[in-house]
């Protein structure tokens, strides 16, 4: 998918901020792409963006209307359809992260065909992928992996992109989930790819590149999660990472949605190296990213220091403390990345 920006964010009439978490993620990382928000009466979510009608958004230069919400079942409420059709008739592409495909709704499908605009269903992908080949390709790749799902893999990769570019390094975030695709403007929701083609899809997403270029690949799930390990393993093989960062939420005792205990960081490092060597024998860990949101300042800093000492790797909270220590480690381990 290659979604044109700037974006006009559509929040419908959702009842709380959490329902607009996808939109919030986009604003957090791509504020410069977000021109404004359009809401229906009664909407309880607010992105802090200028209020715009569809016409005002188009006049300001918007290219795509983003349906930036999540709801139970991923359905599109019938009373939202008129606003989406209005945006299409004004010339906007429309992108949605809901489970229902936009083109399944007759009014939207017919309006898009009549007006020649594109519909993007970010949870779905019609791209044809080859099976993965595991052949060594040029360029450098980093994959974020986790002790669990929803452990900070996307935010860590995005924070690395921002920090590395600030230092003049050649680095690109590669999205493998629907929110990441919105943030990046392109990518593939890897969990919607047929299993045989997962590694090939990641090879397509992060192809051969210049020797000093970094692709920062958003991880998914966990190699230890009984629900998602298959996706995580295919992603690992296709990414062929030179480096990986382990992401962890320290207050959890079981993995999300199951009763299995979280693996240790050491176990994640060991299994990632053992499995990753299939496509990159030189794979290595370069850091640990901890979500310390639930910890006080002193407790957070003590935990990071303890983990850094225990594993011999820099440890940080990417949101709270930034990722400079991770970039320093990358430059030390991969000096060629500083010579772009």
TrEMBL record:
Residue ranges of domain D-glutamate N-acetyltransferase-like N-terminal in the record: 41-124
InterPro entries in UniProt: DgcN-like, DgcN-like_C, DgcN-like_N, P-loop_NTPase
Gene3D superfamilies attached to this UniProt entry: NAD(P)-binding Rossmann-like Domain, P-loop containing nucleotide triphosphate hydrolases
UniProt cross-references to Pfam families, sorted A to Z: DUF1611 (PF07755), DUF1611_N (PF17396)
Domain D-glutamate N-acetyltransferase-like C-terminal as annotated: residue spans: 129-327
The protein's name: Uncharacterized protein
Originating species: Rubrivivax gelatinosus (strain NBRC 100245 / IL144)
């Amino acid at each position: 998918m290659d979604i044109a920006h700037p974006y006009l964010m559509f929040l419908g009439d959702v009842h709380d901020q959490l329902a607009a978490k996808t939109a919030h993620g986009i604003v957090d990382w791509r504020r410069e792409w977000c021109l404004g928000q359009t809401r229906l009466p009664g909407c309880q979510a607010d992105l802090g963006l200028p209020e715009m009608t569809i016409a005002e958004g188009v006049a300001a230069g918007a290219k795509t209307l983003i349906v930036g919400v999540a709801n139970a079942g991923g359905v599109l409420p019938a009373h939202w359809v008129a606003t989406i059709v209005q945006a299409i008739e004004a010339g906007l592409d429309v992108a949605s992260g809901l489970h229902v495909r936009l083109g399944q709704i007759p009014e939207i499908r017919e309006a898009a065909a009549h007006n020649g605009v594109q519909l993007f269903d970010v949870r779905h992908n019609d791209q044809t992928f080859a099976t993965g080949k595991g052949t060594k390709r040029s360029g450098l790749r980093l994959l974020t992996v986790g002790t669990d799902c929803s452990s900070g893999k996307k935010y860590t990769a995005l924070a690395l992109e921002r920090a590395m570019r600030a230092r003049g390094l050649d680095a690109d975030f590669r999205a493998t989930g629907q929110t990441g695709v919105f943030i990046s403007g392109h990518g593939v929701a890897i969990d919607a790819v047929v299993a045989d083609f997962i590694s090939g899809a990641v090879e397509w997403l992060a192809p051969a590149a210049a020797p000093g270029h970094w692709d920062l690949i958003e991880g998914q799930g966990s190699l230890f999660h009984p629900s998602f390990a298959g996706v995580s393993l295919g992603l690992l093989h296709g990414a062929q990472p030179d480096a990986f960062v382990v992401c962890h939420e320290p207050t959890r005792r079981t993995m999300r949605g199951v009763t299995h205990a979280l693996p240790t960081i050491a176990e994640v490092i060991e299994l990632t190296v053992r499995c990753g060597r299939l496509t990159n024998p030189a794979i290595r860990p370069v850091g640990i990213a901890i979500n310390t949101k639930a910890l006080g300042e002193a407790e957070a800093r003590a935990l990071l220091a303890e983990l850094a000492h225990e594993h011999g790797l820099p440890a940080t909270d990417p949101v709270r403390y930034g990722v400079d220590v991770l970039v320093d480690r990358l430059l030390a381990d991969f000096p060629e990345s500083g010579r772009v």
